[in-house]
């Protein structure tokens, strides 16, 4: 009997050990695979790309560069998730990195900078190209050192895979990081195949495998970047793929992640109605979302009690105009005068990392304080607004309900938090486009779908107005909101550049002259006139401006223009299709 019990105990311990080793084996296999991929990338970079940069011809150099990028895309899911700082150095935008606090701009580097030296290649640039490749190799070592120190879990690996597919959807197939080589489609296939290698480590899933294989075949059959049907790719392959990945995660009994960042880990596609976590964008835990705070903020938004005059927030942000005022420049508090910019839409304003056209406010709370204090807008103060509110018994009750820890008086910060919470609630995601992406194919017609494909492809709109917010907040992390230098004219005739220098007014860095935050184009059908100064009255005028290369197309000499100066060569029919798509982004 004792011997039998001993055998049973040893058998049980053996099972536990086997399970532990099996789990450990899955994560260690992932690390082994990544080590192999890093070795492959290092080898291609050193043995092929660098050698050709020294002596090779343009054709071979381009091929080597493409192979280097394809090798990088196999491990991009890791670098973006576990080493975002290193990832930016490896494949960040070919623009100076601005450090606002240090008032400095740092030169860019990585694959996108290398691309500019190769497409097209000029013999005189060999030394610069070799220097950039050497720097890339150094950054690659830094990323590999992160791998050595990384402790993997099943949940984090599968989450990283899902986010990589989101990245492919929003950035990869738009050509965001391959504007010159236009290799985004074959890179999407390479990245999806890398996801398949990870999935196979965890077990067999025929549906995931079939979807990835079919997506790769679809790319092979439709290799042209400009004509690629991104809508079909998303609805037939990408969306079903991430839905199945989340279902399989549950089947594997993977413990869900406890930490919620910008988007909820439970999300299945990039178009889920409740994709975003509003608390990620709040200043602190006290500003976390509750319906009581949002309702209170809604009431304050339309109440002139904040200004102590006839003005309220709603005076310049009218709900029927998607929370704009329909003017080129908003009226100042003194009758007959105007501020230098117009009132931007407040829809989706809470889902970005900076406020105002010049991005001077880091949060909606700060924005509320700034607007109330601005001598041309409300010419009041949050402190005085709090005093006025304290004299209203009904408001004190509502503030106490919204902020249970509140003592006797309404504090100024409660006013700012309530307003900010309401604004964060203005993210309905219920446009015809949203409904189409969730499976209702009756919501968009053929012209509108064609417009979406042009917006995300040939028109290059989606490489600045990132899906699904269609603003400058970059997916899938949504931790950075971008600005652009477009070269906006003072008037539609385009003879003079607008004198407003944007971000440069608050941050004296040359690269920021005429730089403005990239706004959302959701509800753009209701928010005319367009640009910070209302220079364009119609979307047709806006399309013509972009089609001709922005300010450069108008003859402005802007060394720091970030918008491509190349003409888009969109026909009138194609421009009309893009506008038709934009009108599907109007919330119902």
UniProtKB/TrEMBL annotation:
Keywords: Heme, Iron, Metal-binding, Oxidoreductase, Peroxidase, Signal
Pfam families, per database record: CCP_MauG (PF03150)
UniProt xrefs under Gene3D superfamilies: Cytochrome c-like domain, M75 peptidase, HXXE motif
Compartments reported by the entry: Cell envelope
Residue ranges the record marks as coiled coil: none
UniProt GO molecular function: peroxidase activity
Record-annotated Cytochrome c domain positions: 292-419, 446-586
InterPro entries, A to Z: Cyt_c-like_dom (IPR009056), Cyt_c-like_dom_sf (IPR036909), Cytochrome_c_Peroxidase/MauG (IPR051395), Di-haem_cyt_c_peroxidsae (IPR004852), Imelysin_sf (IPR038352)
UniProt cross-references to PANTHER family, sorted A to Z: BLL6722 PROTEIN, CYTOCHROME C PEROXIDASE-RELATED
Protein name: Cytochrome-c peroxidase
Organism: Paradesertivirga mongoliensis
